[in-house]
Write a structure and sequence with these properties.
The structure is a single chain. This protein is an alpha/beta fold. The protein contains twelve helices and eight strands. The protein has one domain (about 5-300): Rossmann fold. Strands 2-1-3-4-6-5-7-8 form an eight-stranded mixed β-sheet, with helices on both faces. The longest helix has 22 residues, at about 280-300. The two termini are about 25 Å apart. The model has no long low-confidence stretch (mean pLDDT about 95).
Length: about 300
């Protein structure tokens, strides 16, 4: 495991960008680009990151960025890869950096097409489980019972299991990560950099604005997501699947913290505790945690 002191000092996410206070997307971007060492062209569909990078002629990122339509990031990345190949620049990484709306929902067909064509690129979904950039509407990644501006009383459906959809495309590399564990995130981007073919990294990104929590609580919430078993850290190279050490210790349900500890810190779940605790809905979410573990392990092991 890489030591923090051994990470590159150079920054590719610049000061003065337009990110919200406490934005975990910036944590993910910083460590991803440190791992890729700047040799990357980043494709960004409509999302928070397209605002963070700032308006032309200024930029919040010290790497080439290509903005594209909400639905087109996978196709755009394929075009960039073809152009680089024609110029003999096969070593430059092409990376899509898209939110859950542009991945789970609007961009899923372009993602599927690029993976089916076996495009050599890295697709990153930074998942804050809501359309944060356009007013916090629910997305296909929004959890069961979470409040958004379009689910005032809580979402009535659980989130889409996107990782299983991506796995069906047989990517060369696939992983989940979290900004609460930056060294793990950094190492996964390092590994992805060395692998040819379609690659996918799914990052858990708490959002203080959309989830309604104090800006300093992002890392705590990210760690609770893992410690309760809600977010599972794993990676898969070809058919070789492994749980990462942060999640392996919580494979046993008896070792996990109650999901209630994760929910209580977030205003989007406040209706589950006020005016009185909704035991049934909290238990539904607790049961869904185990369901996700069962499906994941049944699929990959």
């Amino acid at each position: 495991m890489v030591a923090t002191r051994d990470m590159p000092m150079k920054e590719y996410v610049l000061k003065g960008n337009a990110a919200c206070a406490g934005c975990q997307d910036m944590v993910a971007l910083r460590h991803a680009h440190k791992a890729l060492e700047g040799d990357v062209i980043q494709v960004v569909p409509a999302c928070c990151t397209s605002v963070v990078q700032s308006l032309w002629p200024k930029s919040g990122l010290a790497i080439p960025v290509l903005n594209t339509a909400f639905a087109a990031s996978g196709a755009t990345a394929s075009g960039v890869r073809a152009a680089l190949k024609a110029k003999g620049k096969d070593d430059t990484q092409v990376m899509v950096w898209a939110g859950d709306g542009g991945t789970f929902d609007i961009g899923i067909q372009a993602l599927s097409g690029a993976f089916e064509r076996r495009t050599d690129f890295l697709y990153v979904c930074y998942n804050n489980q809501v359309y944060s950039n356009t007013g916090t509407q629910r997305s296909g990644a929004t959890p069961l019972y979470a409040k958004t501006t379009t689910t005032w009383y809580g979402k009535s459906e659980p989130e889409k299991m996107l990782d299983l959809i991506v796995a069906a495309h047989e990517p060369a590399y696939q992983a989940t990560a979290s900004t609460a564990y930056p060294r793990d995130l950094y190492e996964k981007f390092q590994r992805a950099k060395e692998i040819r073919g379609p690659k996918f990294i799914h990052i858990f990104i708490p959002c203080p604005q959309a989830w309604n929590y104090p800006v300093e609580k992002g890392v705590e919430i990210g760690k609770l997501a893992v410690e309760t078993g809600y977010w599972i850290q794993w990676e898969r190279i070809g058919e070789d699947f492994k749980l990462n050490r942060h999640s392996k210790r919580y494979q046993d349900p008896e070792k996990r913290k109650p999901i209630e500890e994760f929910l209580r810190l977030q205003g989007r779940f406040s209706h589950l505790f006020k005016p009185k605790k909704d035991e049934k809905k909290i238990q539904d979410l607790q049961n869904y945690v185990q369901h996700r573990w069962d499906v994941l392990l049944r699929t990959f092991t």
